[in-house]
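User: Hey, quick favor. My workstation is busy. Could you predict this chain's structure for me?
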Amino acid sequence: MSLAVYAAGALCWRVVDEKIVVLVVHRTKYGDVTIPKGKVDPGETLPQTAVREILEETGLDVTLGVPLGVSSYPLTSGREKIVHYWAAEVVDHAIERSTFVPNTEIAAIEWVTLKKARSYLTYERDVEIIDAFEALVRQGVTSTFALIALRHGKAEPRGAWAGSDASRPLTERGVKQAAGAVPSLLAWQPRRIVTSDAVRCVATVAPLAAATGVKPRREPGISQDAYEDGDGDVRTIIGKRVRSRKTAVLCSHGPVLPEILREIALATGTMPGGYLTDAADLETGGFSVVHLSATNPASGIVSIETYAPPVD
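Assistant: No problem, here it is.
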């Protein structure tokens, strides 16, 4: 069987005259109307592809929101195309800075109501993505922010390190994991970076801090030392992040991550379950993106997506 072709895109949306409208593109080559998307470039992650393709096809610089689903369909070559979609709220500033001009790939872009999109889109598989977004609209959770739980990169083994546990540095692999996570994390445009004060956590968020210009806040309350000593302060730290309603990365340790996920659920009125355990069960360098409503965080966790560390 031939290998699948992977692609990613986003359903861009905004509110105009108190109505939600979504962006569709008229493609030059195919003469169709569809949702903007494109193939993954070598070395890219799916979230990275989605943001890049939206910028290239529509001129809009977007931040990803909630995942909306996956479409798959056969190509004329016989290969299967698998497309991952997210919602992406488009702010006025992005509209003002749009660089779109008609080109050989996209003839026009158009904002339409959800009702019009249903009859306007060429492919039924695109209408299914509209259905997924409309479900969020009905729940009143379209505007979202994310709390991203990040496990530090691979560190020097405890038994092989002469210094304190908190002073253990990243290995060469851990350094690569920290740098490799940045392109994906940037797709959600984190505005805050919170990290355990352990060296391995501080070093893990350093490349992200350099890329965003956001200064990391060191919090001993989410450190492994505090966890093992029984004096951690995860609840206070998570509560502050939920109240701020700004996307944040929280870098911590394997034993602390289940508590971080549990406190996010408790702070947002979400029923606990095995899904929290799964989201916390991260490899070193991996992360889970927990999406919460920006207008009503107490409505619970909207969605969680989990990412393995970059391939070495």
